Sequence to fold (408 residues):
Amino acid sequence: MKNLNRMMAVLAGAIAVSANGSAAQDWPQWRGPNRDAKAAGFTAPKTWPAELAQKWKATVGGGDATPALVGDKLYVFARQGTNEVILCLEAASGKELWSSKYGAPAVAGPSSSAHSGPRSSPAVANGKIVTLGVGGVVSCFEADTGKKLWSKDDFAGEWPRFYTASSPIVTDNECIVQLGSEKNGGIIAYDLNTGDQKWKWTGDGTAYSSPVLVEVSGTKMLVTLTAKNIVGIGVSDGKLLWEQPFEASQRMAYNAATPIVDGQSIIYTGSGRGAKAVKVEKTADGFAAKELWSNPDNGVQFNTPVLKGGQIYGVSQGGDLFCLDAKDGKTLWTSKLGGRGFASIVDAGSVLLALTPQGDLIVFEPSDKEFKKVAGYKVGSEVYAYPIAAGNALYAKDKDAVTRWTIQ
Fold:
């Protein structure tokens, strides 16, 4: 009987977790659990409704950072006045549970009017939240209470032209962050609990790309676009394992996209340079990246493409939605989207979701033949964050608010 009661309790707990947002529905960091923009916990309807139902809208402050969804909590990183603030909201209702803030530098120059808030998405892991502010300050908070545990500013006064935009990553109880500016930057690993520095790599400056993790021949490495290269850095010691040049030749072009992982292959892209794919292999001397293909068309600037079903879906710097063959890089189709190259694409199972800066959510089918639109909705205004799709809900962060929409 005790065993039966224990089993029933476990089952009830599992049902409760599922009802409130299971692990499969979590979006705990930049581009989701695996940083690949796959919303594994989303349930696409057989028939899409004419409109989405707005459940709640909460004013949270300015910024382009995508919130983090973990269980039944939504963590939002934004700017309120002269402060950067991390807020914890109840995902079902939008009710604020706690908030924590600190003073942040003013944003000047070309980003000052429309983009004064943080661009970097928070990372939630092991009961903690790591944020990276516009001025490059790394902070760690308790997820339950919002208590600040530690804060670092190791490249004080240094950030890229459009301010810090790379998002932190947590692995092996370490927080790894790309910091500094194009001419004076690097990558630092901090102990998640204490903030103590584990290692520091300063082989190149910093642009706007966020790192991903790759394991090759038993070695875990961090792969990211720096100011002028794509690099593989050892997670355990911060040593450079391999690099390939990838410097922008145009004045208004930057390394901003996140590399795409396909086994041991890495697909990366940049404005004016199209897309490339390399395979990382173990060699007698260490590691090397062997080029697989290169497509000079449809380079991206301010979004990261999605790999799905052997195809790559992205938005070019010219505003074209495109589809490439992941095996050889050939362009399969393009369709005009607009938005000056800004857009976020999410793999939502049977469909793909594209969200434009104008707040237009476009639902389309994955296809290697043509663009097949399924539905379209208005979910905000001045949207630069990713949409979070979980269960039958969608969360969208726009200029100063977060809205929960449901599909009914």
